[in-house]
Amino acid sequence: MLQAKIVWLLLIQISVGLQLNIVLCTNLIPSRKIYIVQMDKWAMPKSFSNHFKWYSSKISSVVSKLRNSEKEEAKQERIIYNYQHAFHGVAAQLSEEEAMMLEEEEGVHAVIPEYKYELHTTRSPIFLGLDPGGGKHMSPHYVENHDVIVGVLDTGIWPESESFIDSGLSSVPAHWRGACETGRTFNKRHCNRKIIGARMFYHGYEAATGKINEEKEYKSPRDQDGHGTHTAATVAGSPVQGANLLGYAAGTARGMAPGARIAVYKVCWTGGCFSSDILSAIDQAVADGVDVLSISLGGGVFPYYRDSISIATFGAMEMGVFVSCSAGNAGPDPISLTNVSPWVTTVGASTMDRDFPAQVKLGSRMTVAGVSLYRGRKFLSMKKQYPLVYISSNASNPDPSSLCLEGTLDPSKVAGKIVICDRGISPRVQKGQVVKNAGGIGMVLSNTHLNGEELVADCHLLPAVAVGEKEGKAIKRYALTNPNATATLSFAGTKLGIHPSPVVAAFSSRGPNFLSLEILKPDIVAPGVNILAAWTGDLGPSSLPTDDRRVKFNIISGTSMSCPHVSGIAALLKARHPDWSPAAIKSALMTTAYVHDNSQNPLKDASSNSPSTSYDHGSGHINPLKALDPGLIYDISAQDYLEFLCTQKLTPMQLKVFSKHSNRSCHKSLMGPGDLNYPAISVIFPENTSVTSLTVHRIVANVGAPISSYHVQVSPFKGASVRVEPDHLRFTEKNQKMSYSVTFTTLARQPNPEFGGLVWKDGHHKVRSPVVITWLPPV
């Protein structure tokens, strides 16, 4: 019963969130921790000349009550950030007692503990239809967005990459107010008309982990990890012909919006990404004038009013900034999403129609298909078979040795052999290094039930092939039942036109959104598997310290890769429709997404090879060209989002976290959370079986032809009838708004959610909203 699982997983998620909070707190300086203090900007007494002096006074006052000797220190050293734009307040070092006392002070909205976030770690423009010919000539949609600025919060940037050449770009947009900060090996000259700004944020990180070792890490916007360079290039990288990774995926690499500008905000360091730094970056990015924010990182899920990123992105949305966030890589488990606030676009990952085939040829003459990006000096002969070994007694249950963890392989058992390793716990490429260190000559990397048949290619340090769960079990059984088992490995380069595609990645985090079941998440999926983009010059393609290879481009996977695809496409829409709100852009992306693959079958889930649902793919797979002309949009204002929060049982003090402006309060305009004008519809029938009918309301705006007529089409459901009123919408002018209601009446309560869609059609446009109906189990 999915509902029962949802309840249990909800309890587990809350427990894990609390445990993470406890762990993070204990890892910080014992006596003090970083707290984010949100202040009521409008409550500042007239005796203070500016807000920062008032904030400092509040901190100083609380500290002096507990430790008089530290009063001066409080003013000068306790505060590490001053937030002024998307968020009002400070980040400060406080003891738990001080934090509790501060939260009781007048004018203080919230005191939130520091939280550590993690990164959610080409052909995609052609696959997405942005460059239909696949040649040198770009679609006109690419070249009209020169004034759109995308802020990328990540690990920094490698400015020497050809992806950041500014040839052909006009001068820096007039609305840019940012800066190019300098530091170790990063100078003013590294910014140009492509990288128009670069900043770094590290005070929270240093407060939690100690001073950055500048001999080992760049205390500058420069990227030594590669992640930030890759995401920035995916968003808005300039076209680079002949791009490839060791010969794989050769072609022209370009970002989704190569005419857009990049503003770099380095918030992630070797020890992670801390919320006070991220919050400061969002706050600064809004002040700098970015149009789009791309955030490929995440952590646990917390109540909206305790989630500093949720609060900061609400402020960014108020200022007209579109925010795209990665959904996370915790799939295929349900309720594994992060970044679930309705005002951000939550992006899952999918495959493309490109693959990197490889084969495992067994001594039994069985051949198994897999993938690999291996291109080393040592290859295994196709004319010879090599000993094959699996260090486990059971093909279905991995153990430490079969996972090829550090120090678990006995060289006497694996030297000179191809070793079968199970996927899990340690990085995939690291398993190959463990095999190599133990004397192995090759590796077969087998998926487990958590990964299913999803195949992710890696740039291994020894000959290695990744295979699906079923094939992996067959290979393991062969190795366990044949004392003289043998195999060899072969590599076939790059293959295009893969069917089916796209497929939802197994690692892509899944819904439902347990904070608000009525808000369907993820919002959309985009390419996030085996993505080629620019790379740092400081690290090999495997990201292992032992990898001395250096490449200009790398192929990696994750929702971190799918998020910048959406950010770049949002930049295209912003350029085409500069007056559109963030919600309007999001609506266009969601209502034009498709839910069938290139074989004309429903999108599949890589973990099960069965059809995916809206909890996996959200509204569907992004369709950029359709999104440019969506026909109708569902717009949502900042006040509308606040009205949604008013339905979430928040206290007046908790709501003040979002109602920073003095004129914003609850008008109770929504009957319930399902009435938020969201482009997706999720209806929750409560445990009370006497409730048999629910109605939600929506408003659409006509952004197509002034005179147009739409009729509605709704999927059939087993458990409920659906009535849409009116079932026709007739518009007489552009931007005209019309409302409709959807009434769901239970016919037979279903044990599992039902999925379908509601589509408005005018003969040219198909404006689709996913529909989910859930019946909570009776108490």
TrEMBL record:
Molecular function terms from GO: serine-type endopeptidase activity
Coarse class of the protein's main subcellular location: secreted
Annotated transmembrane regions: 6-29
Entry GO CC: extracellular region
PA domain mapped to chain residues: 385-475
Pfam families, per the entry: fn3_6 (PF17766), Inhibitor_I9 (PF05922), PA (PF02225), Peptidase_S8 (PF00082)
Gene Ontology biological process: proteolysis; system development
UniProt-listed InterPro entries: PA_domain, Peptidase_S8/S53_dom, Peptidase_S8/S53_dom_sf, Peptidase_S8_Ser-AS, Peptidase_S8_subtilisin-rel, Peptidases_S8_3, S8pro/Inhibitor_I9, S8pro/Inhibitor_I9_sf
Sequence ranges assigned to domain Subtilisin-like protease fibronectin type-III in this UniProt record: 675-773
Residues annotated as the enzyme's active site: D154 (charge relay system), H227 (charge relay system), S560 (charge relay system)
Localization: Secreted
Record key words, sorted: Glycoprotein, Hydrolase, Membrane, Protease, Secreted, Serine protease, Signal, Transmembrane, Transmembrane helix
Protein name as catalogued: Subtilisin-like protease SBT1.3
